[in-house]
Amino acid sequence: VGQCVQQGQTFVAAIDDMNENYPEVFESPSKMKWALSFLHSRGTQDVIDGNMKRAHHAAICATLLSGYLSNSSDVSPMKLYDIVHADDKTILTYFRKRASCSCLDEKRKEYKGVKKTGKCC
């Protein structure tokens, strides 16, 4: 999915490509949940390693995959805009909410004084 999105394809095209190459994933809700869990895990590790660009990418993919998994248009345009244009502190917060450990607590201290940025309507 990430490779297709980086090449400028739409998320739907990326999902179609993945479905064509790995149909067994789409036939199993547990494998889809595993893929989402993997993105959360990878993104968390990327934040720890300081690779915020890759963590940001994982957050975007996880948000879109989560909407796809729920079989609804659960991902609002504003939510998607916010995650696509998120700053590092927002990406850190995204993964802290999804991590079942305290591994991001040290990184949180680094961003404690940084003001949040975002689009207001």
Mean pLDDT: 79
Pick out the low-confidence regions: none
Instruction: Work out the radius of gyration.
Output: 15 Å
Number of helices: 8
Largest sheet: none
Give the class from helix and strand content and strand pairing: mainly alpha
Q: Which strand-content bin applies to the residues?
A: under 5%
Topology (elements, then pairings):
Blueprint: H1 2-6, H2 11-21, H3 23-26, H4 29-49, H5 52-69, H6 77-84, H7 88-98, H8 105-111
Question: How would you characterize this protein structure?
Answer:
The chain is built from 8 helices and no strands. With 121 residues, it is an all-alpha fold. The chain is globular, with a radius of gyration of 15 Å.
What attributes does this structure have?
8 helices, 121 residues, 0% strand, mainly alpha, single chain
Concise structural overview:
This protein has 121 residues and is mainly α. It is 70% helix and 0% strand.
